[in-house]
Write a structure and sequence with these properties.
Elements: E1 2-5, E2 8-11, H1 17-65, E3 67-69, E4 75-77, E5 93-99, E6 106-107, E7 131-138, E8 142-151, E9 160-167, H2 168-204, H3 206-219, H4 235-278, H5 283-311, E10 319-320, H6 321-335, E11 342-346, E12 352-353, H7 357-374, E13 378-385, E14 395-402, H8 412-416, H9 432-442, E15 446-451, E16 457-464
Parallel strand pairs: 11-13
Antiparallel strand pairs: 1-2, 3-4, 5-6, 5-9, 7-8, 8-9, 10-12, 13-14, 14-16, 15-16
Helix pairs in contact: 1-2, 4-5, 5-9, 6-7, 7-9
Length: about 475
Amino acid sequence: MRFDLSAMRLTGRSDSLAFRLVAGAALWSSIALLVGGILLSSIFRQSVERSFDARLEVLLGSLIATTDVDEEGAITRTRNLNETRFDFAYSGWYWQIAPLAERLATRSRSLFDQSIDLSRAGDATRDISGARFFDAPGPDEQSLRVIERRVQLPGYDVPVSFVVAGDKGEMEDDISSFNGTVFVAMTLLGLGILVALLIQVRFGLRPLERVRHALTQIRSGKATKLDGNFPTEIAPLAEEINSLLEGNREVLERARTHVGNLAHALKTPLSVLTNEARTHPGEFGDHVSRAAVNMREQIDHHLARARMAASANVFGAHTPVAHALVRLGRALERIYAEGGIKVTINCPNDLGFRGEAQDLEEMAGNLLDNACKWASSHVVLNATRLDEPRRGRPAFRITVEDDGPGVPEDSRKAALKRGGRLDETKPGSGLGLSIVTEIAELYGGELTLVDSPMGGLRAELTLPAASG
């Protein structure tokens, strides 16, 4: 399940805060509406039943009041009841007058040739007036609600049973109609509550959406901290995140300062050693010079790694790729102009690198420099955004290929190792591809070497892309 309301993403995942809020409130609201509907139906049923019984009781009173004993001692009716349905056969409304003796009973026309079975009264108790209510079957498979009362008429020798009955179907129809109305009303109310819950959750979680957007801005390099006014509950979180970002920047600056101080501190002693070695020509001086050069390379390498490790995962680092690559391509084309090397750069303008500009330039520069050394006439660099994320983050790929002799497959691993040189006639220290590999790994990327359709080597560098 997936629901979208004005940029609010509500998924069916049980660990979603929005899902928990809506599902919990919807569950309890459904239970409350169900219980409320049942209670309303029960109260209405009781009210209808009491009203129905009261109507029967009024009709019974009217029946007794309009019944008399004539001069011959026979039961007679002085006038009819104000209910025309007593005159239609099997209408559902009936009355019956039966002496408690072996005598003929008097019945309403609606009973026709039937009678009301008083044996169904069972253990029904009589109220203070002597009346009792019970259910009994009636004509035409009707279910009747019956009220019966025994009265001693003046001038009559035995008690008389007065009975009035009404069809319960009328009562059940009213109850069913009410239940249907309640169901529709509760359903509409439930839908209204659900919409209100979604709006409430959307409005209530909007500050978290703002925090997410602000973090995206920081990650993409468009902001350095969480800006804006947040609710009281969110403000401490925003303050802590800003403090964390500020502390991270301070640690980075201190690390860079220490790296610079170390480089500066070692630079002078190495220069002294190199100068002293030059003043002592011979085998000793040559050994010292080579050792000093090796020390300088090692120091530069490890200082560069320390700098890269400190900056690789810094929030807010963002570098436009196209500008850096075009600048590198022009520079290398000028450097290798004597060899007739043409450098072609293809890169979308909106592509961004989630990292430091100098690291991107160092990686791309080493790959382009290596390709230009081996190319016959043409080097092509393509940068494209990858459709699938890498390690849960957006990524892009830089491919650098040339039309040179290429590198055998069994020698490519050696080319990526530190100091690995496949041809000593070419200038270089053998550190270029290894530096690219190390920087790429610090950013969670990778460098691979494959054959190029142009005939030479194709270097594929995968790096994290800046979002937004």
